[in-house]
Design goal:
heterodimer; A: 620 residues; alpha+beta; FAD/NAD(P)-binding domain; Elongation Factor Tu (Ef-tu), domain 3; Arc Repressor Mutant, subunit A; 4 domains; 7-stranded mixed β-sheet; 6-stranded antiparallel β-sheet; 22 strands; 18% strand; globular; B: 456 residues; alpha/beta; Gyrase A, domain 2; Four Helix Bundle (Hemerythrin (Met), subunit A); 3 domains; 6-stranded mixed β-sheet; 12 strands
């Protein structure tokens, strides 16, 4: 009934959507299969995109020509650049989003993408020929052929929802689970596991008393994710902060015996950094309060997301405890919080392209790989989409290095180390985070994506112009001096030592607490010069000039690492024969099948001495 | 950690450790020729490959030794890189000095098997040879950690483990502020962080300082026997050694080079260095000997000043001691020993009370001298109460870790942001990791999740 496709994408969430968009934009014919056309691009958890480390990922997706940044900008109701007071590696953009607009924009962008077809159905199995995936089978009984298949099943594979003592099958509240795929993959030799995540109650915003909460407004000068910079906020909505108290905790504790977390019904491991409220009370008993972050779900809707109150306790316990939180005395609940357990496949079974090692032309992206988070899912989807297209067209794999992108760090961590809990990105996971900044994702990645044919000419031109402006401003600052008469008054204001003779602008800016504004205040000439430049350029140059030493230091380390990454390990290597290596290392390497010495060195249990042995055997 | 993957220039002693007639130090790497050239009186840069140069190994203006340097230009060398082989005199002091100076000038101590490894890496060896190397490395990998820890004499491993814990704590506190600034957690204030860092720094510093004692335990406490020509230094050495190690004559200046040997007294190893008598001389060879004596003097933990009671009156001794005291460096102990009391009718009561009187020839007072050596070496106390670093590479790693930590401290003072501090903290962790094993980001995150309630 349906034609054959180049790429079939199973799932219409953040991962599936980016996969479909990337493959189609590269020229593949794509079929996106989702169980419900009405829930494409859902924000299943909180209505926000980005944040620390995650914001950098959204910028990277955008720089590569993905859609997440644009969709987020279009649906934003608030923008904040987090960690402004810290160094430039830490600056992280975040938006609060209108949940409904977010989903609508995703749907519209996919509809407008040439080459993307849709089909509403549940994929119940894969078509396998030998060791190759050649299509899917659906619950309606269709067999749809494709040259590559990308699975992005989210929490739907054998999804099991827990609410107090109740359990029901489902991937999200109100949506049924997907069955069949796990069993088939296991029969093909895949290892699978269970993970758990949770979500808090949603309440009626009209029933809350915001007067007793702290308001957290957006930035005064909101920017956005996309380097195309087509959508900027003019109005914003605030979030609010309140706290739990011992009374809340006591009420919650009454329900512990009926908690699936504590009575052993939930087997899957949940994330340590995103614990349920009962988990927080249990593990950190000495704390008498926990923060509640109240997030609006959109411009117009009255629904509100109670972040920090994730729970799977019985709904009446949730309700009773919540009403003891200041501002929530009269709260009306729309939907209770719940926990969901789902199948995942340890990602060490994947190549760096996200293709499975066991079955060729089959790719996994998102929570199926044990990750959590929209951004983590979206970037995997994009990489899987690109590589699915490349596989079909017999092109070289497209992967990113740890020193090139958070996306590179994420995928490398997954496939070389695996994960025991839902994997979320943190900046501390990146060795070279000062290189992986949100301000330079376009410089890092757009040229790569442009040469693939994914990032548009427009994006490439923008990067070109930005870099040209940056060069020109840097040159100006390298050759223009500031006099003691001009500089010393403003330096004194910043408690910075006075200068005794004329000093180059690029030298003064390297001092702590001195920025472009300081210098523009000191020198009218520089003020005039700066007015010729885009604020984005000024900021990027400021970062380059102020942190040059640190950037150079990390670049040097990254280059060293790259040399290890360039030493390839042949896929037919027999680790068992390397008897000089510790048996633990042999086993771990056998499991991980690293493609390069760099990857091998990051496999846990493999020591530098083991790597030396490996290098000796490789004859290099 | 991956010694094979870097392009540093490495150095190590290639002859068996300990004293010999001559010793050979090998330097390999892209900067081998330049580094050695800068420390050599002759010209190595323009020297042809496979030639030999004779000259002086210099530290600034100071002559360290007369050496012979052999130049091998890559790829026609053992390792395939540029290699310099330095043949020097065989005293452990000279070997250590040359290695120390090389390291201070940009070389790195080679890991065990690293020369061979580089040889393989640069395809100077075939696989069967290389497999032997692999086994060698593997032997180290299996036993190395355990061995290293055992080597660290009890307390050291515990102290390093605690240090590791403290550093992970510190790094976690910094990372907490970075990755979880939006979370509802309390961040340590900067004073607290500074104190934590100062504590870590002082532990590292005391470990680094222990290296001198550690080295003494491993290589023997260096004791320089000095004094005017013909005071009987060589006779004393022979008496302590119970053998005719040094040539003895009554001609002043007989000993022209430093002679050294080990004596174990009450379980403590002493390395006695018999020096050429220090005097103004025109004799070129004796001059070098005198310079070496000065080196030995600087290196020694204990200086035994020997004088002939028949030659030096109490007032003359006082003058000598005034000069001598000015030369002493911090931590150096001085023993004043009056010799040749058997051949003397001199009244000894005029000398200061701390002077020991002996007769090397008659073997009188030697026991008392040995007792004094034990007492001033101060090692019994040290080895029991404190952790001691004895391994050169541990010392190097700790020193580098301290340098990074000092950059963190400076950064905290100037108020630079945490992500930049983290760069140097990670470097410190990395260097410490060279002793304890690598510290991963998973360690840091695990520590954060264990101690702080993360998650809104």
């Amino acid at each position: 009934m349906l034609r054959d496709y180049d790429v079939i994408v199973v799932g219409g969430g953040h991962a599936g959507n980016e996969a479909a968009a990337a493959a189609a934009n590269l020229g593949s014919s794509v079929l996106l299969i989702t169980m419900n056309m009405g829930t494409i691009g859902q924000m299943s958890c909180n209505p926000a995109m980005g944040g620390i480390a995650k914001g950098q990922i959204v910028r990277e997706i955008d720089a590569l020509g993905g859609y997440s940044g644009i969709v987020s900008d279009k649906s934003a109701i608030q923008f904040r650049m987090l960690n402004r007071s810290k160094g430039p590696a830490m600056w992280s953009p975040r938006t609060q989003n209108d949940r409904l607009i977010f989903a609508t924009e995703w749907r519209l962008m996919l509809e407008r993408t040439d080459g993307v077809d849709f089909w509403q159905d549940m994929v119940s199995g894969l078509l396998i020929e030998g060791e190759k995936c050649v299509g899917v089978e659906t619950q309606m009984g269709l067999q749809i052929k494709a040259k590559s298949v990308v699975l992005t099943n989210g929490t739907f594979l054998n999804g099991l929802i827990h609410l107090g003592e109740k359990q029901f099958g489902g991937g999200r509240a109100g949506e049924r689970a997907a069955t069949g795929i796990t069993a088939q993959l296991e029969s093909l030799g895949f290892e699978s596991g269970r993970m758990k995540t949770g979500t808090p109650p949603r309440v009626d915003g009209r029933s809350l008393n915001y007067d007793v909460m702290d308001e957290q407004p957006g930035d005064e000068n909101p920017s956005g994710f996309s380097y195309l910079a087509q959508h900027r906020l003019t109005a914003q909505r605030s979030c609010h902060i309140t706290y739990t108290n011992p009374t809340v905790h006591d009420i919650l504790k009454e329900g512990f015996d009926r908690s699936p977390m504590f009575n052993g019904r939930i087997r899957g491991s949940g994330p340590r950094y995103c614990p349920s409220i009962e988990d927080k009370i249990d593990r950190f008993a000495e704390r008498d309060r926990h923060q509640i972050f109240v997030e609006p779900e959109g411009w117009d809707t009255v629904e509100v997301y109670v972040n920090g109150f994730s729970t799977s306790l019985p709904e009446e316990v949730q309700m009773k405890a919540m009403r003891e939180i200041p501002g929530f005395e009269n709260a009306r609940m729309f939907r209770p919080g719940y926990a969901v357990e789902y199948d995942y496949f340890p990602p060490t079974q994947l190549r760096h392209t996200l293709e499975t090692k066991l079955i060729s032309n089959l790719f996994f992206a998102g929570q199926i790989n044990g990750t959590t988070g929209y951004e983590e899912a979206a970037c995997q989807g994009m990489m899987a989409g690109i590589n699915a297209h490349h596989k079909v067209n017999e092109k070289d794999p497209f992967t990113l290095q740890r020193s090139e992108a958070y996306i590179g760090v994420l995928i490398d961590d997954l496939v070389t180390k695996g994960t025991n809990e839902p994997y979320r990105m943190f900046t501390s996971r990146a060795e070279y985070r000062i290189l992986l900044r949100q301000d330079n994702a376009d410089e890092r990645l757009t040229p790569l994506a442009h040469s693939l044919g994914l990032a548009s000419d427009e994006r490439m031109e923008l990067v070109g112009k930005k870099q040209e402006s940056m060069r020109s401003l840097r040159k100006y600052m390298d050759k223009t001096s500031i006099s003691p008469e001009e500089a010393n008054p403003v330096l004194a204001e910043k408690n910075s030592a006075p200068i005794k003779q004329k000093v180059k602008l690029s030298t003064v800016i390297a001092r702590p607490h001195i920025d472009m504004d300081t210098l523009a205040n000191a020198s009218e000439m520089f003020h005039v010069e700066l007015s010729k430049y885009d604020p984005v350029v000024i900021e990027s140059v400021q970062i380059m000039q102020k942190y040059e030493g640190y950037i150079a230091k990390e670049q040097e380390m990254a280059d060293k690492m790259t040399r290890l990454e360039n030493i390839l390990i042949p896929s037919d290597i027999e680790f068992d024969k390397l008897t000089s290596m510790s048996s633990e290392a042999r086993q771990k390497l056998k499991d991980a099948q690293p493609g390069t010495i760099g990857q091998a060195s990051r496999v846990s249990g493999v020591s530098p001495a083991d790597i030396s042995v490996l290098l000796v055997y490789l004859g290099r | 950690m991956f010694f094979h993957a870097d392009d540093s220039t490495i150095c190590a002693l290639s002859t068996a450790p300990g004293m010999g007639a001559i010793a050979m130090i090998r330097v390999s790497g892209p900067d081998a020729i330049n580094r050695c050239h800068q420390l050599f009186s002759g010209d190595l840069v323009n020297a042809k490959s496979h030639t030999v140069k004779y000259g002086r190994f210099m530290e600034g203006e100071r002559v360290v030794d007369e050496v012979v340097m052999t130049i091998f230009k890559g790829p026609n060398s053992f390792t395939g890189e540029d290699v310099i082989e330095i043949a020097c005199h065989g005293s452990t002091y000279i070997q250590e000095e040359i290695l120390r100076i090389l390291v201070e000038n940009g070389c790195r101590y080679a890991e065990r098997g690293e020369f061979t490894f580089r040889a393989f890496f640069n395809r100077r060896m075939d696989l069967s040879q290389a497999e032997a190397v692999a086994d060698l490395i593997a032997a180290e990998s299996a036993g190395a950690h355990e061995l290293a820890l055992n080597q660290m004499r009890g307390g050291f491993s515990k102290e390093i483990a605690e240090l590791r814990e403290e550093l992970i704590n510190f790094a976690s506190l910094i990372e907490l502020e970075l990755d979880f600034s939006e979370e509802d957690v309390e961040f340590a204030d900067r004073t607290e962080l500074t104190n934590l860092l100062l504590k870590i720094n002082s532990v590292i510093t005391s470990l680094i300082d222990s290296f001198r004692s550690g080295n003494a335990i491993k290589n023997g406490v260096p004791v320089a026997i000095i004094g005017k020509p013909n005071a009987g230094k060589s006779t004393l050495l022979n008496a302590l050694l119970n053998e005719e190690r040094a040539i003895v004559s009554d001609i002043p200046g007989t000993t022209r080079d430093t002679i050294e040997d080990f004596v174990v007294i009450d379980g403590i190893k002493f390395r006695f260095i018999d020096t050429a008598g220090i005097r103004e001389t025109e004799d070129a060879i004796e001059k070098i000997g005198v310079e070496r004596s000065m080196n030995a003097f600087r290196e020694a933990n204990i200086i035994t000043y020997l004088f002939d009671v028949n030659e030096l009156s109490p007032s003359q001794l006082e003058t000598e001691l005034t000069t001598l005291n000015q030369e002493l460096t911090e931590g150096q102990q001085l023993l004043i020993v009056g010799n040749k009391i058997d051949a003397s009718e001199v009244d000894l009561s005029g000398y200061p009370s701390e002077v020991l009187f002996i007769s090397s020839l008659a073997r009188k007072g030697l026991l008392e001298l040995q007792e004094s050596l034990i007492n001033v070496s101060n090692l019994q106390a040290v080895s029991k109460e404190h952790s001691i670093v004895t391994n050169v590479r541990h010392h190097e790693a700790l020193s580098k870790a301290r340098t990074s930590l000092q950059e963190v401290l400076t950064g905290m003072e100037t108020g630079i942001p945490g992500d930049l501090l983290a760069i140097d903290i990670r470097k410190a962790l990395h260097h410490l990791g060279e002793i304890t094993g690598e510290i991963t980001t998973d360690d840091l995150l695990g520590n954060i999740f264990g101690k702080f309630c993360i998650g809104k």
